[in-house]
Amino acid sequence: FGSSLAPALSRSSTPGVGSPRIAAMKTLAQEESIKVPKGIKISIKSKIVEVEGKHGKLRRDFKHLPIELYLANSGHEVRAKMYFAKSKQLSMLRSVCSHINNLFDGVQKKFEYKMRLVYAHFPINATITNGGKTVEIRNFLGEKRVRTINMLEGVKVEKSTGTKDEIIITGTDIDFTSRSAALVRQSCLVKDKDIRKFLDGVYVSSHGTLEDEALVTALPVCAQPAAAARARARARARSREHETGVPMRGAAERAE
Hints:
Strand content: 25-35%
Structural class: alpha+beta
Radius of gyration: 28 Å
Largest sheet: 5 strands, antiparallel
Mean pLDDT: 84
Shape: extended
Number of helices: 5
Order of helices and strands: HEEEEEEHEEEEEEHEEHH
């Protein structure tokens, strides 16, 4: 009897085998809320959010999310609630609030993406047509092909008046505005060459809302290759000189 019971005891004592599984802990109810800014009309019906402001109207559908979305505090607050969710699933509450905040910013201020035309030898020429709904890019790496990029719905593009070789993309919908900038960026990709050496292209230099004083700077290092390389060389030379106490020559002098 004892010998027949021994294998069963050994199997049950092994971790994860024969032992009951412990269910992941779920939160009974979690809630996130955001305030509705002044001068904005908002309506929520069946998880469809419609926002109206001085720059127009935007609409977003959240039916794919298992949340409860409603207005509270006499329509001055938006609340998102979720029941019996795990920790990773709860993250969608904050995401929904961020999306609705972007709707508020879009109808109040508009979004703006600034893009720089970066080239080493062949000057890139951008032409705005169709009333600001289309941009045509010519002479990219000396190519004869004309790259035509149509802006998405509600997005306009224009040339910068104060900065050379810069275009500005504006729109109320952050998705359409950023995707239009991405279409321009992806139309000027370098093919069959070393992209570390051939750095020509159209890059997003900054983005944000129109009424913000300081936009988020996002110009990549490759957009200013020579200056960035000199700065890196000087930094390396200074760090070596600090470590060894011997003045470093060559890289730092060449960088100057």
